[in-house]
Design goal:
This protein is an all-alpha fold. The chain is 61% helix and 0% strand. The chain is built from five helices and no strands. Helix 1 crosses helix 3. It is elongated and about 60 Å long.
Length: 79
Amino acid sequence: MRKLREILRLRLHAGLSIRQVRNSLRISIGAIQKISTLAEQTGINGEQVCQINDTELARHFYPKADTRSSPRLELPDLS
């Protein structure tokens, strides 16, 4: 979560380019573009990034994982 917050802080608050963020954090350009685009779509700004906690921040960018088990991937009964 720290990288997510850092990407947003550098892009939105500090106004760095995608390549500058990549060089600073050693993250792929695609990941930075994806997060930047989602931030624009959700309307998150630099001040909000500093104010909300990591859990809320993650909810904006990563939907909840589907934790249901698949019937075709069930573990065999080894008893």
